[in-house]
Design a protein that fits this description.
318 residues; 48% helix
């Protein structure tokens, strides 16, 4: 046998060995990817399965206590400070036979007037049913707009001297892209049934009649907000006709006390210890399940967030 034939056989054997190795590596990678996906699906399914069990208020009655409910962040549907979450926590706290008082610890810029209104109404309803349990709103850093709307339903409101309180007003913001589209040479083609169906479309010029209509909607919401605050605070407002009290301005805790927007200066521990008379705080705040936290962390509600930031989600109490 010639050396050439030997070399050819050797190269063919090497080629087969290399191809076999590459095939094995590809197969191994495929199985690796498959098992990783399978593990991910299993964990995701487990979180979804146990989500209803893990999403609940934390309150566990272990004797006389002051119930604590956090109102933190944007007040909106699907947020931690949604009406569903806050109302569920309130009902659990009121129904606990060991609850001596309830503290709403607020740190929020406001949000949806609808969600805020739901919570306001439920606080007043539950207070009427459980006259022996008082509700105290305690504003930490910020209790503005819809957050103050909620606070005004409480028996008393407390804040720090440097807290930001008030902002009793309504806003609805957006953007106009008409000039940008003209520069880009882009035509907007929108088909509707109804003369004003697209009146909030940011790609069309503003219409004076529609702008006036929208302003009336905001003014109506503002009047509802003012009426609720006056009803909740009553005679404690030092000057209900103050020209700037309901103008949307925000006040320090010290200024808010002078105006009657709050009742006294103090924090949650002070209220529990010295006002309620039960220093033990039990947290009734509804907590997101691990599944919900996972979804939020990885952007399951990106579109909703963009809508909020762009101002396309209706009026906001601010």
């Amino acid at each position: 046998m010639s050396d050439t034939n030997v070399d050819n056989k050797t190269w063919k054997l090497l080629e087969k060995a290399v191809l076999a190795s590459a095939t094995e590596q590809r197969r191994s990678r495929r199985w690796g990817i498959f098992f990783k996906i399978l593990t991910f699906v299993y964990l995701f399914g487990a979180l979804a399965l146990f989500s209803p069990l893990l999403s609940s208020s934390k309150g566990v009655s272990t004797g006389s206590h002051t119930a604590l409910i956090e109102v933190r962040g944007m007040i909106a549907d699907q947020e931690s400070a949604s009406a569903d979450n806050i109302v569920s926590a309130l009902r659990a706290a009121f129904e606990d036979e060991n609850t001596k008082g309830i503290v709403l610890r607020i740190n929020s810029p406001g949000g949806s007037p609808v969600q805020s209104g739901y919570i306001y109404d439920e606080i007043r309803r539950l207070r009427a049913l459980h006259t022996d349990i008082k509700v105290y709103a305690v504003i930490s850093d910020l209790g503005a707009s819809g957050a103050y709307y909620i606070a005004s339903a409480a028996d008393e409101i407390y804040a720090d001297k440097s807290s930001l309180v008030g902002s009793i007003g309504v806003t609805a913001a957006g953007f106009g892209f008409v000039g940008t589209m003209e520069k880009l040479g882009v035509d907007r083609r929108l088909y509707t049934s109804g003369a004003h169906k697209a009146f909030l479309d940011p790609f069309q010029p503003q219409n004076a009649e529609e702008t006036e209509f929208w302003q009336q909607v905001l003014q109506t919401t503002h009047k509802q907000f003012i009426a609720s605050v006056k009803e909740g605070r009553g005679a404690r407002l030092k000057d209900a006709e103050h020209p700037e009290l309901f103008s949307g301005l925000i006040w320090s805790g010290e200024q808010a006390l002078e105006l009657g927007l709050i009742d006294a200066l103090g924090n949650s521990s002070y209220v529990a210890r010295d006002i309620v008379g039960e220093k033990k705080l039990v947290d009734f705040t509804v907590q997101d399940s691990p599944f919900d936290r996972f979804a939020k962390k990885f952007g399951a509600s990106v579109a909703e967030r963009i809508a909020i930031l762009a101002g396309f989600n209706g009026p906001q109490l601010r």
